[in-house]
Amino acid sequence: MCKNCLRFAFVSFWLLLLSSCITTRKVNYLQEPDNIIPDYADSLVYEDYRLKIGDKIYLRVYSTHEETNALFNSPMMQTSTLTPATDLYSYTIQKNGSIVLPMVGEVIIAGQTIREAVRTVESAIEPFFLRDSINAVCTVELHVLGQYFSVIGGNGTGQYPITRAKINIFQALAMAGDVGTFADRSKVRIIRETEDGTVVKMFDLRSKSILNSEYYYIEPNDVIYIQRLDEQFFSIVNMPNFIATVLSTVSLGTFLYRILLVPKKN
Asked: Which fold has domain 56-145?
């Protein structure tokens, strides 16, 4: 009975050991879809970010009309050694969806893209420089401050700034130091806040078809969750590691066999 139990344990251990090897199949990106790696539908739709209540924006007015420059870029707003320039020219979108500009008052920009908001602000301040000079020109620089995405798991758990309009999932993970050898690329999750509530999207990062799917681009405030592979227990990632594990297993098996099964001589 003891001999059969030991054999069963030994065979089970070897099966578990072999199934725990981490192959390129489990870690390589951009693999062709098959019966294991899913083929995602061509559903790539990128929409420009729309401003939301609570967003903090950087807004700077540039005009050939000196009074307009003085009004929106007064000496009191110049950069100091204590306050960053982005804070001096920042506005927060209020609960009613507006920002409050000097002399202009409330300007509704919530729900608009950056381009739409620029045109809205330019139209709001236009009367201030056109009433004095029809040849005056005015432009507005506007972008969102403090946009981040977060990564949990992998090689770089943390919060990372979004520094460009479009960031795809591979660029985001590269900023976090990739997902690591023992990450389960087949079950990557993105936690996303939408107007209808929080949603969780799960996808296989190894599939090449992700390039044209809804999972390709990330959005501000996304949380990317990377879970671990079960194979991490043995950490078999290359041939020397495998050989070392095999030798250790054989040594342990031989030791147990001699203790438990080899009869002792009187």
From this structure: wza like fold (3.30.1950)
| Burial of 109 from C-beta contacts in 10 A (0-12 / 13-18 / 19+) | buried
What value does the mean pLDDT of the chain take? Answer: 79
Helix (H, G, I), strand (E, B) or coil at 123: helix
pLDDT tens by residue, 53-109? 999 999 988 887 777 777 777 544 444 444 455 666 889 999 999 999 888 899 999
Which token pair is 204?
């296989």
Task: Please report, as a single letter, which amino acid is at residue 65.
Answer: H
Residue with tokens 């009309």: 65
Strand partners, 57: 91, 144
112 residue type, one letter = Q
Q: Which residues of 224-249 are buried (b: 16+ CB within 10 A; e: fewer)?
A: bbbbebebbebebbeeeebeebeeee
pTM to 2 decimal places = 0.69
Task: Express each pLDDT in 200-223 by its tens digit.
Answer: 999 999 999 999 999 999 999 999
Question: 24-46+166-228 is classed in which CATH architecture?
Answer: Roll (3.10)
**Alpha helices in 77-133, H assignment, sequence order:** 85-88, 114-130
Say how many C-beta atoms besides its own lie within 10 A of residue 253's C-beta.
15
Q: Does the pLDDT value for residue 264 go beyond 70?
A: no
Cα–Cα distance between 57 and 125 in angstroms, integer?
17
Per the document, the length of the chain is 266
Listed residue (106, 87, 95) closest to 145, CA to CA: 87
167-173 average pLDDT score: 94
- CA distances 21 to 38, 238, 247, Å, are 22, 8, 15
